[in-house]
Write a structure and sequence with these properties.
Radius of gyration: 26 Å
CATH topology of the largest domain: 60s Ribosomal Protein L30, Chain: A
Order of helices and strands: HEEHHHHEHEHEHE
Structural class: alpha+beta
Shape: elongated
Number of domains: 2
Distance between the termini: 85 Å
Largest sheet: 4 strands, mixed
Oligomer: single chain
Length: 221
């Protein structure tokens, strides 16, 4: 009886030590039915939580969602027994999360270019030349400043597609402005925000037209 008890204690000790050393590099973080995960995944998850608490999910929603999705994918990859790939993915996700919402220089002036792109298009229309000329005159008031062109879309279509479409609209606007002497192309940066920053309701045709626009931001020099 004593021998059996000693054997049980020794066996339990061996199992405990095996578990302890087998979990080196893991952290207790219950998620998706699993208790222990590589520390890189846990760190990436904490970074996403911290970013959300600081409001970065609202400040730069597209980039935040991408970082969060990459983190979730890292967990799924780990659960699929691809530890090395999951850790690399988690490191990338954490780096993206920590780099979220870089601070732009202060915006000192803004011009909304309501050229109302046709649905699913990024082509500049002839009927918009008057508006574009006003934009050129506006930019020329700030020859020493850098400019950001932000493209926007309505909500029809997938968010991923609209993000790309808004980028194309910003680029099309930049080409036109540069071609017509608004500013040195090196001083103009473009970015697409997709459907994330509407100025009107997407439930009406008029509202959707207002949301298909480009905003010109003049930055503090």
């Amino acid at each position: 009886m004593i021998l059996n008890k000693r054997f049980y204690i020794l066996f339990s000790l061996v199992i405990a030590l095996t578990f302890l050393f087998g979990c080196a590099g893991l952290e207790f973080a219950p998620k998706k039915g699993v208790w222990m995960y590589p520390k890189e995944l846990v760190s990436a998850d904490k970074a996403v939580t911290t970013a959300q608490k600081s409001g970065k999910d609202k400040e730069c929603p597209v980039e935040f969602k991408e970082a969060k999705n990459t983190t979730e994918k890292a967990y799924d990859t780990y659960l699929g027994c691809n530890t090395k790939e999951a850790i690399a993915m988690a490191k990338d996700a954490e780096a993206k999360t920590k780099a979220l919402c870089p601070k732009h220089p202060k915006v000192i002036a803004k011009f909304t270019l309501t050229i109302n792109f046709d649905f699913d298009k990024s082509k500049i229309r002839k009927s918009d030349k008057e508006q574009l000329q006003k934009a050129i005159e506006f930019i020329k008031k700030y020859p020493n400043n850098k400019v950001i062109l932000q493209g926007h879309t309505c909500s029809i279509g997938s968010k991923k597609y609209n993000l790309k479409l808004s980028e194309r609209r910003a680029l099309a606007t930049k080409k036109y402005l540069v071609k017509n002497g608004a500013l040195d192309p090196q001083k103009i940066k473009t970015e697409g925000l997709g459907e994330e920053a509407p100025v009107a309701s997407n439930k009406t045709k008029i509202g959707r037209e207002k949301n298909r626009r480009v905003e010109i931001l003049i930055l503090e020099s």
